[in-house]
Design brief:
93 residues, mainly alpha, 5 helices, 59% helix
């Protein structure tokens, strides 16, 4: 039970730290080009690398602000989840 409480506390702390975005930074990222399903899929695939890059450089983000909504989100989730589907299978022995 203590592990779950610690995990929830760390997750809440992490979400609090990354939830503060400067409006000027967001305005610079938004362009006329919106990202759709394929952009979301690509951003989901490279999300682990984007995460580590965003810790080092301020101009890297994991998620495109100027996306078209549901299809981008669907592609992003498939891209992130596609990396983990094979790792959850148990041995048949």
């Amino acid at each position: 039970m203590k592990r779950i409480a610690l995990f929830v506390l760390l997750l809440a702390l992490a979400m609090n730290l990354v939830s503060c975005a400067d409006s000027e930074t967001i305005k610079e990222c938004v362009s006329e080009n919106t990202y759709g399903f394929w952009g979301g899929l690509w951003h989901g695939i490279v999300a682990p690398f984007s995460f580590f890059g965003s810790l080092i450089w301020d101009d890297i983000s994991m998620y495109a602000v100027n996306n078209n909504g549901g299809w981008y989100d669907f592609g992003f989730i498939l891209g992130v989840g596609g990396l983990t589907f094979g790792s959850s299978r148990k041995s048949s022995k």
